[in-house]
Amino acid sequence: MLQSKRAKQFQNFLDDRGLGLKVIELPDSSRSAAEAAQALGCAQEQIVKSLVFKNMETEEPILVLASGTNRVNEEAISAFAGGPVGRPDAKFVKNVTGFSIGGIPPMGHKQQLTVFVDEDLLTYDEIWAAAGTPNAVFMMPGNLTEILGDHQVVSVV
Predict the structure, then answer these.
(1) Confidence of residue 30 (pLDDT cuts 50, 70, 90)
(2) How large is the average pLDDT for residues 82-93?
(3) Region 58-62: what's the mean pLDDT?
(4) Looking at residues 12-41, what average pLDDT do you find?
(5) How far is 105 from 43, CA to CA, in rounded Å?
(6) What is the predicted pLDDT for the residue at 87?
(7) Strand partners, 141
(8) Is-contact 67 49, C-beta < 8 A?
């Protein structure tokens, strides 16, 4: 049984969409990709990092879903976004996603975000992502792009 309000909220989001995916809460933090991979016994590359950026000209929120070992190239994301991007503060992230940094899931946000998916994530049969809190995660089969809806698949490195 889920303990966290945010993890329960995200599980309800998954259930409402009939996705058949289950949130689990880990006993320890999975805030970083390395921590999550160790706790789950999977490769760090199978961890989805949900990183929020902001178009500095339009203030549009941008979500980058990156493989756990990839460092996101902000210049590349700026080119895809059509303007310079930057890392917003925690308040902006919480306002647009409804979640705090370290627990941002790849979907189910308060606002519509432009989404860029790291092409490296599509090479795995299963990937793991945050589910509302730093210690809540869920496993997605390799059909991330089918589940997400509107997005672009790009090279983020």
Answers:
(1) confident
(2) 96
(3) 96
(4) 90
(5) 19
(6) 95
(7) 126
(8) yes
Q: Please give the Cα distance from 30 to 100 (Å, whole number).
A: 13
Which tokens is 28 given?
């320890």
Torsion-angle region of 110 (φ positive above 0: left; ψ -120 to 50: alpha; else: beta) = alpha
Higher pLDDT, 156 or 89: 89
Burial, 43: exposed, middle or buried (Cβ in 10 Å; 0-12, 13-18, 19+)? middle
pTM reported for the whole predicted model: 0.92
| DSSP of 62-129 | EEEEEETTPPP-HHHHHHHHTS-EEPPPHHHHHHHHSS-TT---SS--SS--EEEEEGGGGG-SEEEE
At 114, give phi and psi (nearest 5°): -70, 130
Kindly report the number of other CB atoms within 10 A of residue 141's CB atom.
Answer: 14
Asked if 72 and 64 count as a contact pair (C-beta separation under 8 A), the reply is yes
Q: Could you please report the per-residue DSSP string of 129-154?
A: EE-SSTTEEEEEES-HHHHH-S-EEE
